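dumping these here so i dont lose them again. two proteins, back to back, each one seq then structure tokens. dont judge the mess
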Amino acid sequence: MSMSRRSMLKQAGAVTTATWGQRLEAFAGPFQVDEAHLVPADKKFSAAWLQSLTDRGKPAVLRGDELKFVGMPVGGCFAGTVYLGGDGRLWNWDVFNQHHQGTVAHQAKYGKETLNESSGANYVDPPSNVSPFRIQFSCDGVPLESGHWDETTFLGQYPVGTVTYTGHGLRVVLEAFSPFIPLDIERSSYPAVVMKYTVTNLGSTRRKVVVACACEHPALLYSKDVAEHVTLTVARRQARDKSADTGSRWTGASFETVPDATVRLAPTPDWGSFAVGVTEGEVMETPGTRPSATVSTPLDLAPGQTASRHVFVAWHFPHAQVNGFKEPTRRWYGTRWSDAGDVLDDLVENWSDLEETTFKWRDTWYDSTLPYWLLDRTFANTSILATNTCYRFDDGRFWFWEGVGCCHGCCTHVWGYAQAIGRVFPEVERYLREKVDFGRFFHADTGAIDYRGEFGRSVAHDGQAGCILRAYREHLMSPDDDFLKGVYPQVKKATQLLMTQDPDRDGILEGGQYNTLDAAWYGKLAWISGLYLAAVKACGAMAGEMGDTAFAAECSAVCRAGEKSMVAQLFDGEYFVNITDPAHRDRNNTNKGCHIDQLYGQQWAHQLGLGGIVPAQEARSAMAALFRHNFAPDVGVYRRGMKTIPGGRWYALPGEAGLIMTTFPKGGADQAVGKGQDAWAGMYFNECMSGFEHQAAAGMIYEGLVTEGLAVERAVHDRYAPHKRNPYNEIECSDHYGRAMASYGVFVALTGFYCHGPRNAVSFRPRTGKAKNRFPFITANGWGTAHVDRQPDGTWKATMTYRHQV
């Protein structure tokens, strides 16, 4: 059935779902729902939907109405945002350093509510192709976009988007990307997009065609006053490709900003340069107030012949005055390249190797026995690095919002969920641990980590534990133990700070525990104490490697006590709960509720090869209960029926499935929302936030609940089906939200991947249910493909082939 995004279903069970490129009938139900059971225990999944969870399937080729909302980030990491649309247009050019919350700032109506970018406006009413300046690609004079060809299709396999146009006696295949090479963040950070067009003559006669890009000058679009005192110029530019024996050159248009020498001007955020080039071709300039140029490259094709041409697009707007910083901030790429033409010189000189390695990674990722949909979903969020959620400043510092323009400071608790960066570009996370969390914003006297850097100089308990866990992950993804030697004293001190809130060393924290739900909670919290135990276990492992046997033993004792305490005090026989502090009943809490992060620490410990923090039987019971009580095939039924706790943002709409943050199957909702200034945050309990869902899905898979974990992951994937909204923008309090990078952890859980770089140890423990598996892998030393087969004795044998080594 079709459904308006703004309509609400009146009956439970009328739920549809879609894969990327394939629509299915109702995937669950019908249900009988009553006020006591707003989430049905029996999900009544259709057989076809269950089968689709594990089927290899086919690459999802999009067409028609599935193209409208697609916006794959295809610029370099830390270089701003530019989208590749489903029809091959480049849109949402957010490279001009204009501060706004949300990748496209606007408001939307949902019923009686007015939503902004933090409350789900871009989820409920997703934007489509918008660009602040004109840039258009064409082939033989026909615009390369929807409506001009007999058929247009899109295949998104990040970091490469492939658009195929058929018509006019031609087939044109666009492969758009920016260089993307795991373990090499330097070569993955060009402020540029490569548009590779492969044209086939489908006719019976020889044909000459031209691939062209027409572009207007994009600088100073937002600084009208300054623009009065500068001249926008377009110059023909060419440079030798020094790596090519043929001496090939790139030819193109360089869009420059030339100030009036008689006026003293300070560079504005949108002051800079832009360049479009081809390896062989012509430039035609068009003068005007905002001058333009067309860069073209010819092809001479015999019948059935195919040839390729590249169009290179680069930008250079280094004056990134990030909102909130007192001192000027500049983009790192401004220290490497002098202008956009310089970017193209470098890119074209090295493009053959950069393209080959980028395509090799794409092919490696998809050379797998895992389902295509799962490979899409678990890696797509890595594209957050190529948006304005993520910055790299001219001093080398990596700095992140929580989501585009929202919430300052590499927030330790939000980014503690993200797994993709630490596995794909571990050098970035090592920098953040060394220079930020255990460097500039570490308090050596106490062990405290400022959870938002200079924007939040206090401890978030889940973030503090997360930094310790991430330090161990970064060690495991290092080629040697130099990193650990450098940070271990600080990691130990940070762990000891948490231990001060566990004075009796029973493994349960006491006192106020500030966390990612934006409030300090009080009492015995399975969620935070579980993270604490995982952090202690990780620090104990690091202590052992550093020869600090006394502290390793102390950590081990806390973990043994904590395992018993978690079960004895916080396991209610079905799942893990929170025991409220009688002295702080006015604070937010989940008390008897079933909370999505109750075993977040258990998932972390498994991923790091540390085993669990609670026994397997109780862990499996808790994760099964989480799925039973919190996974709603139609979240609208729950939202309408939950009368006790009001509100919540719309990151899952009526008619869509999701894992609800906290439900109260045994009561307690009336005690969950506090009375103080943090009470507003109680609305989180009703929400579906994809980063938490990915984390929980990974946890379910680790406990052997593979179908349940995949169902949660697929629900997120289906919510971001392209006929509904942009599949590359998982939204939570603004766009391209960092926590969504937890999706990579689902891949780690399903493959059972473990790497200890300094020991040169790698292992797999597949949870796919298949005897023969093929997975991509990234270790500290390179990446490639592993064949992992079950042996007759039940063990696993892995054969690894590196396709790229560092």
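---- next one ----
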Amino acid sequence: MRNLFIAFLFSLLFCHFNYSQIGMGEWRMHIASKAIDVASGNGIVFAALETGLLEYDIEANETSVWNDVNSLSDINVSCIYFDEYSQSFFLAYKNGNIDRIKDNLVTNIPAIKLAEMQGDKNVYSFSSKGNLVYACTGFGIVVINSDNNEIKDSYYPTNSNEKVQSIAFVQDSIFALSPSKLYKSSLSNSALADPNQWKVDVRVPIQTTNYYQDLQSKANELYLVKKNSAYGFDSVFHITNSGLVQKAEFGFSLEILDFKIYESKSLLTCYDGVVILDNDIAYSGSNSLFDNHYIYPQNSILLDGDIYEADNVYGLIKFSIHGNKQISSIGPPKNNFFALGGNRETIGVAGGIIHKTGVAGSSAGAYLFKDEEWKLFDKFNQNAWTNREVFDVSSISINPLNENEIAFGTFSPTPISISYDASTISEVYDPNNAPFVGDIDDKVCVSDIKYDSKGNLWVLNGFSLNPLKVLTKDKVWKEFSCGSSVSNKFSGKISIDKNDNKWFAVLDEGLIGYNDGGTIDDVSDDKYIQLNTGENTGALPSKNVSAIAVDLDNEIWIGTPEGFAILYNSESAFDGVAGEYNAQRIKIDFEGNVEYLLGETSITDIEVDGGNRKWIATANAGIFLLSPDGLEIIESFTKENSPLISNNIVDLQFNTKTGELFIITDIGLVSYRTNSSEGDSKYEDVIVFPNPVKPEFNGVITIQGIKYDSDVKFTDIAGNLVFQTTSNGGTATWNGKNLKGEKVTAGTYLIWTASNTEKGRKVGKVVILN
């Protein structure tokens, strides 16, 4: 269809909303601009994104994003609809939850989500008549009274054997379309909850191979979309007294996603364009290009002569005779999140996925986030990947000596790729130019990668004889033997300690430590150890290690599906005898019983912040923040007590400069601005915010960019001590109160810092307005 579409000529315009860094203790959700539905009303266009909403105010030409963190009641959006009677938007989620949005107020209608029933609760579409809004679901029709937001009734035309795709009204009749049949009944029938009160409309043939998708009414006439199992053979039909009459016959194929009828025109949203139809449902025109690129529509609407298209790649696009433009949120390029990597200000996200026994074939690629901008790396925008098989990008590492050097690891025939300018892949490695051995399809499993302090790239190559490999800073590949017990097995994560020792996980074999003696070229002085669950060979909680972290004291924190442990003597372990390099578990006294801290909680990741505190990610209990020694649980973040969107945490990564913690969950990416950051002994970039502090501000005043573990004092201009604290890494906070807990008066306050052993220095000031 693309080649036969009439394309409009236009220029690309961007409308950005303010997506600036968040304040201390605040959360934000990172949503891709991938739009799945669109609706308009009251001068507002809402594009439903996969995990939120993009709002576009037409007159103000402004956009904003709604999500589970800042406003909405749920995640995983399914559709959106504007109801003229109530002047409200109805937003549905795949679990049946519904939000009503009116005058910027969200009212949750959770009845379907909370209903104790089996089956598909997804809401596929909405329709309305009078004060009633009809939600078409996987089990039937749910009727909502828009006057009071209550469920009035539920109808079961298919007896819950099929989903209801859409409904339409003709005079006193209500029609419900399932994939195979059209049902009808009378609106005046008070027993529509009874499936027997619905009759199959014999004008519409029952489908067994093909299926029906959409139903629309116009001037008491019904039209439906019939999907053909063969690609490109979909059709629009007029339902007449004698049966179906095909409409919208074109000289090109149709793969229809949505159908809407307006007073003077109709729209067909197709897989690769938007088709405009006239009053007779005949071809009038089409859009298939934007900025000389193909569009990927999911739905579209007609508003005041303009077309607003929900696009799978470009978000929200407006097509107009006055000029076309992209109206999009600033977010990650895609909603695929698997693993994180980073170095100071740059966050890397691996979008692919790696399995223990095989590939997933994900082409999501990877993304970089720096200075509030996202950058995509995938096979469509990287020439080095164009003619290669590159999928399942599962790890990212950034060279600490050069933040523009980014390495990507995959489970594919192209296992390692490197960018030297943080923009373009310029070097790739595979079995032809590196010591990799692929399977019968040439796929190589790289489970994790990490640069060391000298700029060498260490690679963990699963299912190989020697899983530990390195690409030296001089571009020479080497591999190392770590014993037969770890050969040809699936590998996991790798971490490098402050002495450049390598620590990595192997499935069912515990944790491996490797010491190269500081000489990569000379293996004669190399040593390795293996920690497992044996009483004298590691004493790990489990033989499967899922998280490895090196803290500021060079202690190795080891997470497993059955709790965590700590290797305190990491350096001496390589020369230790059996039992001398066991990991230790923290014990606490709980109600008279001695227990392991966090018990057998499944640990998925461990990150260390600038204050040496430990952030523990779990598979089902959210995130725990532990004190530097791990003896105290400082905070616990769950979906129930915070804006965290899920308790199933996949991976964590710090922006060490700002202290923002990026969190991959099983349903999306969020971040949280912690009160800790990396210390800076040179005080080159000290920031105090907010400054000035306005009367309505109720948060904490933050000073960032100071030396690790500093004493911080706040004084008035006369030098009188007002408040003092100790920094978490390079960050300290003040609640604006004096030592007595009283709110300080308006004025200018000086900030002094010093380490515990050095003389103090003035590093900033803050103005408080009361």
